[in-house]
Amino acid sequence: MRYTVKINNQVYDVEIGDLHARPIIASIGNEQFEVWPEVETGAAAGQNSTGVETGETAVAPTKTDGIKIVRAPIPGMISDILVQAGQSVSIGQPLCVLDAMKMNNTIHAPRAGLITTVFVSIGQHVKHNDLLVEFAD
């Protein structure tokens, strides 16, 4: 599916891949992103157990070779950190939760590996592209 999106007078060409695939591949301009939709676990559709709307994101570059840093895909506040330095993670594993505009956006690991640094803390406000976690080489 192809869309043209206008945000703050800036026009973007967006292409979204198969919505049934995991991850869903979204292309914006020349960049590709993986989107890992949350799995519903008994809460009302689109809400978590506290009734807050949940997002379907977890955006990370699709090229997994050499990814060492995971950055904030959007500005928001870190509401949960699900990993710690020294922990091994698998591809797609949740790393942290970023709240933006009353949406809980789970950020997933773009690759398997060892987490060396967690740059954020719960309650911290981050900007777009701020460092979240770092992987070992």
Number of domains: 1
Taking pLDDT < 50 over at least 5 consecutive residues as the criterion, the unreliable ranges are: 40-65
Please indicate the percent range of residues in DSSP E strands (runs of 2 or more): over 45%
Structural class: mainly beta
Strand order of the largest sheet: 1-2-3-4-5
Mean pLDDT: 78
Question: How many individual helices?
Answer: 0
How far do the termini sit from each other? Answer: 35 Å
CATH architectural type: Beta Barrel
CATH topology: OB fold (Dihydrolipoamide Acetyltransferase, E2P)
CATH homologous group name? RNA polymerase II/Efflux pump adaptor protein, barrel-sandwich hybrid domain
Characterize the biggest β-sheet.
5 strands, antiparallel
The radius of gyration computed from the alpha-carbon positions, rounded to a whole number of angstroms, is 15 Å
Helix content: under 10%
Number of strands: 13
Shape: globular
